[in-house]
Amino acid sequence: MEKTLAVASREFRGYFNxxxxxxxxxxxxxxVALLFWVSFFLVGRTSVREMFGYMxxxxxxxxxxxxxxxxxxxxRSGTLExxxxxxxxxxxxxGGKYLAAIGVLGVFLFCTLPIPISVSTLGDLxxxxxxxxxxxxxxxxxxxxxxxxxxxxxxxxxxxxxFVSLFISMVLVILxxxxxxxxxxxxxxxxxxxSFQRHTEAxxxxxxxxxxxxxxxxxxxxxxxxxxxxxESRRWS
Length: 237
Known about the structure:
Structural class: mainly alpha
Strand content: under 5%
Distance between the termini: 27 Å
Low-confidence stretches: none
Shape: globular
Number of strands: 0
Order of helices and strands: HHHHHHHHHHHH
Radius of gyration: 19 Å
Oligomer: single chain
């Protein structure tokens, strides 16, 4: 665990030595705030439920951008070979990099907190659904970060990692939901189960279902296992 945390600390500091990370975080927070306040004054309701939908859209783009270099850049620069020959297990490398990405996700969520705080000054805001919504977005972001890390483990090109993980994220977050009316009846339940949006909607309303939690944890766990196997196979290649 100590080595995992050491890798996480190194990666997290590395994130904020890169100006691109600030651009991604500022842009994502700005667009969430812009889209939310425009809709808020149109709806005229003391609620931040719509904010979580906008956060989901932004994470769909931000997560691939934040994870594309985690392993791809290590491969391109040749530092991955050095890293895996050190007294570090593959699981410690993957775990450390993933924890760093989760840390950045936490920073993004923190940056959006002024929105519900501001709304609470305008009316009686129910904080139960707010906390549940944040929990749902955290789980969704954790799954998207894991997917980005897994994709990054297969290529040495950051652009390839970005576009492949962005495509997967778009399919899971918006495309499946958008195509639900056209899905054959027998496949509707499967499509709904795969849709990230369907799993976060209930949490945004304040309902935390263990099936939704299990879904996101399963996606994240599977993606991390794929990344681990990809890194493990590189050691013996």
